[in-house]
Amino acid sequence: QNQTLNFVTDTSMDTTLDSGAGDYLTITVRDKEGKQKYQMQANAEDSPSQLINALNGKAYENGDHITVQHKYSGKIGLYVKGTLQLDYGNSQNSEEFVIQNNQLLRYDPEAINVTVKEGETTVGEAVEPNELIESGQPNYTYTFVKEPNYYQYGEQTVQIKVTDDQGKTTVVETTLVIKHESELTISTKDTTDERLTIKIDSTTHQLQGITDPKNTAAFSATSEPEVLVMALYNQNNELRQMIALDGGVAPQDCMNELSKQTVEIGDYLTITSKEGVSQSLYREGTNVQTTNESTSTYQINAQWQFEPRKTPTPPDEGGNENSSATKIDADVLIEFSKDNTPVQPVDPNDPTIPVDPTDPINPIGGELMITYTSKLDFGTHKKGGTSWFAYGDRMQGNVPITPFVSIKDTRSTDRKGWSLTAQLETSFVNEKGQPLNGAELHFSHLYSGNGELNAPEVTEGDLVVDKAGVEIARATEKNGYGQHSIGLGKLQADNTTNGVELTIPNGIANDSGNYQATILYTLTADPTVAFKE
After folding, report:
1. Is the pTM of this model over 0.90?
2. How many angstroms separate the CA atoms of 457 and 387, rounded?
3. Per-residue confidence at 313, pLDDT binned at 50, 70, 90?
4. Of 161, 179, 197, which closes a domain?
5. How many CB atoms lie within 10 A of CB 531?
6. How many Å separate Cα 231 from the centre of its chain?
7. How far apart are CA 502 and CA 388, in angstroms?
8. pLDDT at residue 436 is higher than 70
9. Is residue 326 part of a domain?
10. Each residue of 267-298: b (16+ CB within 10 Å) or e?
11. Please, is 181 exposed, middle or buried when counting C-beta atoms within 10 Å of its C-beta (0-12, 13-18, 19+)?
12. Which secondary structure element, helix H or strand E, spans residue 472, and what is its range?
């Protein structure tokens, strides 16, 4: 994708470039094949403002090389994200730069040069890291620094580690878009041959009827009419669309009638079969239900997903056998559905108070789920220190709070509790892929709630969060029900927490840069699996 070069100058210094005359500055842009795209030459008697109109708006793209030739050495500098990468005092008369991933970098013929592109997939569908590479060398190999979460729809920033055949590495970033889909598949009787697939487009909220173009056989061996009937209703039980598939007709001959129907939350789809077809409901790539019922109904929930819809039982027209002129029985009913809806996290000091983080909560609901985890930021420091504490989290309105992990458990009475562990999934590395030598991450002063009986138990003492993982909290069948948060220490006067500490032994050297690691929190349904009493 073409971008444009923009040049700016300080108007207060809009004087001639030099007191001399003749060639002073030359900028040449070539494409990745070496073909010259354009060139700008300035004389010493020119002023910066005279060059702006000639320079601005020139198109470039990833892979272009820019050569800057200056009359004097030590006059060319390069800043990347506000940091001086090429010192003016160390530059030569001629320097070459390359545009890589929409950044201007100093060209190093020995360095790894790779260009990334944005990727797209659907929930539950994995991608290979090389699918996110636009250009590179045949001898490069690609691995994810951290595997993307394919069940969290939306945009994710992913890091890809690039390795050449000499063992050199670099890390590049790009965006992966996870599209959310819910789908129904319909098979013929006594077979897993999926003949029809009905999806909800996550962007347009339109139904999509999909069939296999290679399978043109009729849906049924008989020519009986209306072997399969699909009817779309709104939440007021008004018919919006109906299609009927005769036995001798191929599925693709009727799917266009259903496709492109824009649906709303609360609409429902009824599928009726004379022969008894198999229907499978998939949500986020997982089969959640398969049925052979002659009639099934699926409603569109608030997450734009299909979910089974129970048909209300009609009233007993014969009356109640215990009724009389002056007495009659009346049934009293209540039904509890599964609580799979994502919820707001709660304050670690009081689980009855919901909080509103600035970062997103976990969108994948469940009766047992981790609803939110705080990012841990240790800030910016000079090298040479040995210990740093993480800063507190921020809620909406810039309200400070101790970092925490929030949990929901609304399972049935046969629950056995849960166990929460923290594991260092990826170690600290900087943007160049260099490790943070000697780094250890410690949790301590953990707590939950304010002494209420239902609070889960937290692990006491100093805990090292490493590759092996460590249990930080647990619940039995008698506690931990509902919503709770595990507080990672207490906030101090400088807005750091005393419960999350990063240490490096004295005397260990490390490079400058932004270092990042990943903690994997795992919630296990049965605590006896994760630990022994």
Report:
1. no
2. 28
3. very low
4. 179
5. 12
6. 35
7. 5
8. yes
9. no
10. bbbbbbbebebbbbbbbbeeeeeeeeeeebbb
11. buried
12. strand 470-475
Burial of 508 (0-12, 13-18, 19+ CB in 10 A): exposed
Q: Which two tokens stand for residue 105?
A: 């970098």
Does residue 147 contact residue 160 with C-beta atoms inside 8 Å? no
Q: Which amino acid is at 377?
A: D
Q: Which two tokens stand for residue 319?
A: 């009356």
Q: Which residues contact 369 (CB under 8 A, 6 or more apart)?
A: 342, 362, 407, 408, 523
Q: Which helix (H) or strand (E) segment is 519 a member of? A: strand 516-524
Longest Cα–Cα distance of the chain, Å, equals 116
Residue pointed to by tokens 């930021």: 377
* C-alpha dihedral (147, 150, 156, 161), degrees to nearest 10: 20
Q: Please state, in angstroms and rounded to a whole number, the distance separating the CA atoms of residues 292 and 191.
A: 11
Return the amino acid letter for 127. Answer: V
Looking at the structure, tell me whether residues 192 and 137 fall in a common domain: no
Same domain, 409 and 265: no
Is residue 339 domain-resident?
no
Task: For residue range 369-400, list pLDDT tens digits in order.
Answer: 999 999 999 999 988 889 999 999 988 888 88
Q: Please give, one letter per residue, the 3-state secondary structure of 373-426.
A: ECCCCCCCCCCCCCEEEEECEEECCCEEECCEEEEEECCCCCCCCEEEEEEEEE
Closest CA to 389 of 457, 489, 312: 489
